[in-house]
Write a structure and sequence with these properties.
The complex is a heterodimer of chains A (415) and B (415).
Chain A (H helix, E strand, L loop, with lengths): L6 E4 L5 E6 L5 E8 L13 H8 L9 H10 L3 E6 L4 E8 L3 H13 L8 H16 L2 H13 L12 H6 L2 H11 L6 E6 L3 H12 L19 E5 L4 E10 L7 H12 L5 H8 L7 E7 L4 E10 H21 L3 H18 L3 H15 L5 H10 L2 H10 L6 E6 L10
Parallel strand pairs in A: 2-6, 7-11
Antiparallel strand pairs in A: 1-2, 3-5, 3-6, 4-5, 8-10, 8-11, 9-10
Chain B lengths: L3 E5 L5 E6 L6 E7 L13 H9 L8 H10 L3 E6 L4 E7 L4 H11 L6 H19 L2 H14 L12 H6 L2 H11 L5 E7 L3 H12 L20 E5 L6 E8 L8 H12 L5 H7 L6 E9 L2 E10 L4 H18 L3 H19 L2 H15 L5 H10 L2 H10 L6 E6 L11
Helix pairs in contact in B: 9-12, 10-11, 12-14
Classes of the chains: A alpha+beta (415), B alpha+beta (415).
Chain lengths: 415, 415
């Protein structure tokens, strides 16, 4: 399935460099994960990590804010800097010949931001507005709020934070967070595409070799909830979102669990799309997806539909989850799930950006990058019987359910 | 061996294909030259509804079988409808092309069953409501209507709850018969292709298609320059869409227009970025150039704090006035070119990225433009070309629609 060779190199400060030279492509992409996500923010500074990810780009090393963006544009770099729950990620893609100069600029951004105080208020205004925009986007809002209720804190923290947190965050808070959390130990740099490995390795050593490891930063988990909740909004549709626990990537049941989520709602002929949309015409979009942190994982389901159809949409969705575990899957469904995932794996090798982010994710969860052949072999090893044995052994826990719209829904048993 | 191939079947269907070096997959698409501009007000939304109905199946397979037969071979399938085109496409591994293509070709001759029609109508109504919950979508639809009407490009792609609610299956069958003749369709392939096999496949699956030639009216489009305020009291942010006339897709000036739009309003590093985003005055400010059949438009999207909307609209207008008076200097143009070229290469590495480009180009120009030629065309653009575009398409004035809680907003000063 793959001809590529994967290179790994760990710098003495802990930074892990992963590289996949992809034959034939002209582009090169990188993804740097830094262990500086919203989960590490003080509880009254929610939104700090996102604000900081903006501040680092506004002047670094020898360049001011405008010089950074102009130089990146001149190198043709499509880039993004953003905080998520666990990480702050810095990523970019450009022509292979421009990769090293681009990395040099990002080394300044990550190691030597200028932290000009004049930038703080504009950044705060942007952060506050993106929170307001999120309020106007019911489909995204419901997923953020579901995570907040489903996972123990801080694993469900939304990276955009809260208005209170954004208003309270000071430059000093951000500088302290930067010194504690922007660190090479726990950071992962994945590079894929048109690359020259020996040169890349030397340059990354030169750019990031003097990055100093950090100290401390243990996470204290706190329970959240409530299990069933409703947010009242005068929207045209009711948003329905629910989550229940599943296996993490290190579980022996991981592939069984992934297959089951896919068969429930991961493709067009999966059960949710078939039962909710195709047979009953209840809504436009419905589906399920798998998401995971290191020690906790969830099946997420989401649908949006009119008030008079929402109750039936929720009921059918819950019934399908129940039926999946009670009746199991058949081999045709497994074949479809497998064909889709294997096609995605092969197509991943056409995109340097996808490949770079897949490698860093693998390393974060498993401390290794799975060869694509290994994933394909695991998928080939699945049988309907092995999935059904897993499903019957692990009945779905009572899901966390959140609705957003004019009126709450009834949550009946079967739920 | 040439990378590009073309043939025309005896029924008038154009078939084209482009080899993408090192691609591991293949994309296939039917480009039907029909969209909301080809509708009349009484059937508004029928092109998009018909796109959905294709997936409800043919005489040979029902909706569940359509999804299942794509999923069995892991084909990623989808469709899209715009003002002027309806595109049905999938991406699969080369070995699964024949079975996946058989399904795609089959649904292009859909059954249009009355019961399916009633169920799917509910799905479409939900899709319309979903977009009604998104302020920027509401602003976009309203702005297009305000700018173009009475030109057919002012018509809504989705239609309204009323227009779609009143559609009948007979109207859809009639529309289909008028618009889906083989001479109005281009079949395109991109990726890891085997041309002789594709010609055989096209002839086998599409050779017996019949149908009439479709007409389109292309009256000249001249924006109205009107200003409209729509109240949505429950929104947190103000959403603004501004539209100005621009070169058409037939015009050689479309490359200069694309570079101008990127200079003015790319999401990062552009003039609007430095005017509005960097100082934190707005959380979204972008310009995109849309080329249509014998028409064109520059769209400006602005999202901000309602209290700042009027001042921000004036700032956008001032950015346009400045470029109108001073043009773009060659160093700024070079930066923008580097950005656009790099993105073209990145997009072109995936079969889907090229499929859309070659499909639309053949639909409207009966021409093949290799990526290298496109890149050269961008490279040849001079500041004088941009100046000429600005003289021929004077910016401003523009048509403006604002949606949100703020209703006391005055039109900007264009002088």
């Amino acid at each position: 399935m793959t001809e590529s060779i994967l290179y790994t190199h760990k710098l003495s400060n802990g930074l892990v460099l992963l590289a996949d030279p992809m034959p034939g492509v002209q582009s090169a992409a990188f993804n740097l994960l830094i262990p500086a996500g919203a989960a590490y923010e003080p509880a009254d500074r929610c939104g700090l990590a996102s604000m900081l990810s903006e501040w680092i780009t506004r002047g670094a090393g020898d360049r001011d804010s405008r010089e950074i963006l102009t130089d990146l544009d001149n190198l043709g770099v499509t880039h993004g800097e953003a905080a998520s729950t666990v990480h702050t990620s810095v990523s970019g893609a450009t022509l292979g010949r421009n990769l090293i100069p681009a990395l040099a600029i990002f080394a300044d951004i990550v190691l030597r931001p200028r932290f000009d105080d004049d930038e703080i208020e504009p950044i705060r205004a942007l952060a506050a507005q993106s929170l307001q925009s999120l309020e106007d986007d019911p489909g995204s809002k419901v997923i953020y709020e579901l995570r907040r209720r489903h996972y123990p804190d801080p694993w469900g923290r939304p990276a955009p934070g809260s208005i209170e947190g954004v208003e309270a965050t000071t430059g000093e808070d951000m500088r302290r967070f930067f010194h504690e959390r922007y660190r090479p130990d726990g950071a992962i740099l994945g590079v894929a595409g048109a690359i020259d490995w020996p040169r890349l390795k030397d340059e990354v050593e030169a750019f990031f070799g003097d990055w100093k490891p950090g100290k401390g930063g243990a996470i204290v988990e706190r329970p959240t909830g409530p299990k069933h909740d409703h947010i009242t909004r005068e929207t045209n549709q009711i948003q329905i979102a629910l989550a229940y626990p599943t296996e993490t990537m290190t579980s022996v049941d991981y592939y069984q669990a992934r297959a089951a989520v896919g068969i429930l709602g991961g493709f067009a002929s999966a059960r949710l799309f078939t039962e909710v949309r195709e047979k009953r015409g209840l809504c436009y979009s419905v589906g399920s997806s798998y998401e995971t942190h290191k020690n906790i994982a969830a099946v997420m389901c989401h649908a949006g539909t009119a008030a008079d159809r929402a109750q039936q949409t929720l009921d059918v969705t819950l019934a399908e989850i129940d039926r999946l575990h009670r009746e199991g899957v058949d081999s045709l469904e497994l074949d479809m799930m497998r064909a889709g995932l294997k096609s995605s794996l092969i197509m991943q090798q056409e995109s340097s950006m996808n490949r770079a982010s897949a490698m860093t994710a693998d390393w974060y969860f498993l401390e290794r990058v799975r060869p694509l052949d290994e994933i394909a072999a695991k998928l080939d090893g699945l049988t309907a019987e092995s999935i059904n044995e897993y499903l019957s052994r692990r009945p779905p826990a009572d899901p966390t359910i959140l609705t957003l719209g004019p009126k709450p829904l009834a949550i009946t048993k079967g739920a | 061996m040439s990378r590009f191939h073309h043939t025309q079947l005896s029924n008038g269907l154009n078939v084209i294909a482009e080899r993408v070096d090192h691609a591991r997959s293949i994309s296939a698409g039917f480009f039907v030259k029909t969209g909301s501009r080809d509708e009349t007000p009484s059937i508004a939304g029928i092109s998009h509804f018909l796109e959905h109905m294709a997936f409800k199946g043919s005489d040979k397979r029902d909706a569940l079988a359509v999804n299942r037969d794509f999923d069995k071979v892991g084909a990623k399938h989808n469709a899209q409808t715009s003002e002027e085109d309806t595109v049905y496409h999938f991406t699969s591994l080369p070995e699964y092309l024949p079975p996946a293509f058989e399904v795609l070709a089959d649904i292009m001759r859909p059954k249009l069953d009355a019961t399916d029609f009633d169920v799917e109508k509910q799905v479409i109504l939900e899709e319309i409501k979903m977009y009604m919950d998104n302020a920027m979508s509401v602003a976009y639809e309203a702005a297009r209507e305000l700018h173009f009407t009475p030109h057919p490009l002012g018509r809504s792609v989705l239609g309204t709850l009323e227009s779609v609610g009143a559609l009948t299956i007979e109207e859809m069958r009639d529309y289909y018969a008028r618009r889906y003749g083989p001479s109005n369709i281009v079949l395109a392939f991109s990726g890891r292709i085997d041309w002789p096999a594709l010609v055989d496949l096209a002839a086998e699956r599409c050779g017996d298609w019949t149908g009439v030639e479709a007409k389109r009216v292309t009256p000249p489009a001249k924006g109205t320059g009107k200003f409209r305020v729509i109240e949505r009291a429950e929104d947190n942010q103000q959403s603004v869409v501004m539209i100005a006339d621009a070169p058409s897709l037939e015009s050689p000036d479309r490359y200069a227009a694309q570079l101008l739009a990127t200079a003015l309003g790319d999401h990062t590093g552009s003039r609007l970025y430095w005017t509005l985003i960097d100082p934190g005055l707005a959380d979204g400010a972008e310009v995109s150039y849309q080329d249509y059949n014998q028409a064109g438009a520059f769209y400006t999207f602005l999202g901000c704090d309602p209290a700042e909307a009027e001042a921000n609209i004036q700032k956008v207008v001032d950015v346009y006035k400045k470029v109108r008076d001073e043009g773009i200097a060659s160093d700024e143009l070079e930066v923008v070119k580097n950005k656009v070229l790099s993105r073209s290469v990145l997009r072109g590495e995936r079969p889907m990225g090229r499929l859309m480009s070659i499909g639309f180009t053949w639909s409207y120009r009966r021409e093949y433009i290799p990526l290298e030629t496109e890149i050269e065309a961008f490279q040849r653009v001079t500041p004088a070309d941009v100046k000429r575009v600005l003289e021929e398409w004077p910016q401003p004035p523009m048509t403006i629609t604002t949606v949100g809680p703020k209703t006391s907003i005055n039109p900007p000063d264009f002088s």
